[in-house]
């Protein structure tokens, strides 16, 4: 201190100025992101559900898998070690992966799978995102058991745009299969028929009291206190089903969709598609009966022609103590299985906050327009074989713009980066249907599709408008379309055929909802917009696993920009090879 006091006045003033400036910076330093490390051991584990024990693939022996928690701005490193016979890859569903496309995860798109005994470190920074996302396997049907929540909290000292909840609870909807899901889809490939369905739905891995269970521990229980607000982070990890959800005698306030805040709205029943996340606020009753309990329930929304798991999963919302018996608890009344009008009305309620803190940066002008049909189709049955598809000479398949996507034998991103694309993919994916017809009317007689590995090429920063149109070929049904590497704005949706002359005038360009997975309405269309500001190869596909397996998928190749932060960096040294 004596030395400080003996300093000359000009030097003392300078030091005080520097000290003040440093203290002014400290709050920013305190909110800087950190690096969070996780380790995923993919290993086999015996798990009992529905009075049956089977060996399943897990992360660290857990089903569902472990929770990843980070904050906006954090860097996340997940070391994945494959200790099972299956090839594995993990997708971080909804993470933008800005300049980190090598960490996106879909097998044969951005990486070759992690083979038995191999290790790969997924490394990415969470930029400009906060909310509920999730992770899952992205190869074959392994995500049936390899999935878990990915929670992105706001930066330190940044509040939610709603009152702070008393508690936050992830609720993940899934499915339980007594059969091996790899055998289920492989049988479908051989026979050409639709795959068998699951034996139950689950809430946080538990089937609940409406199924034949042998233990009360197979029911999810949410213990709550009266007069409190709970943030429920809902995730639909089911393989093939949109789900209705409701809690008896309680209403919910929807505040977020796919990790993007929305204008809050109240509802008693919601619908959530595979791949989607929805955050809701549950306000518990201030004076409930002593030790009262209520059922929560979910069951499918379905309009297609095939078979589906027409069952209901239930959990218990519990006030007080004890072990409530669900036998006398009423099951929540849910909409009819095929309640398309309810789904359309519910979907129309989602609106972005669109304020100064959370703007809706929807492109106001469009440089590239695309029109994609999505739906089912057929492939011919192999010679000297009888199939079980729509006819005994055809197999079920699925396509976009009548192209059924064939996975390559090496990753698209690797082949693009090394400029070795010959024989891997072509850049002639059709921008509009090659054959036009009444898409939601009487289907054409010829339902055959073409097969190929085709992509669409976009220049960096191109603004895109894409209309996704359902078709009635082999039955109209909804299709949850997920776009990797991007969020997009849902600017319009409707029933029947999209009218390019009338429908664009009704687009919402002010506060459309921002999502990464949007449902193409059964017998209808949805229009989205996004800006191609993330270089790389980005998968877009139906999140019904059966449709994904049958080929309802494609990829966007976004070229590098001119600036260093607009270019895809080289791959990491431990990137798996095929």
Set down the secondary structure blueprint.
Layout lengths: L1 H4 L3 H22 L4 E15 L2 E8 L8 E4 L3 E8 L7 E4 L25 E7 L5 E7 L9 E7 L13 E10 L4 H11 L8 E4 L17 E4 L4 E8 L5 E6 L4 E6 L2 E8 L1 E4 L4 E7 L9 E9 L11 E7 L20 H8 L20 E13 L13 E7 L2 E3 L6 H6 L32 E3 L2 E4 L4 E8 L8 E5 L4 E8 L17 E3 L1 E4 L3 E8 L4 E7 L2 H6 L2 E6 L20
Parallel strand pairs: 1-4, 3-8, 9-12, 11-19, 20-25, 22-23, 24-32
Antiparallel strand pairs: 1-2, 4-6, 5-7, 7-8, 9-10, 12-17, 13-16, 13-18, 14-15, 14-17, 18-19, 20-21, 25-30, 26-29, 26-31, 27-28, 27-30, 31-32
Explain what this protein looks like in three dimensions.
The protein has 578 residues and is mainly beta. The longest helix is centred in the N-terminal third of the chain and has 22 residues, at 9-30. It has helices at 2-5, 9-30, 181-191, 340-347, 412-417, 545-550; strands at residues 35-49, 52-59, 68-71, 75-82, 90-93, 119-125, 131-137, 147-153, 167-176, 200-203, 221-224, 229-236, 242-247, 252-257, 260-267, 269-272, 277-283, 293-301, 313-319, 368-380, 394-400, 403-405, 450-452, 455-458, 463-470, 479-483, 488-495, 513-515, 517-520, 524-531, 536-542, 553-558. The protein is 10% helix and 37% strand.
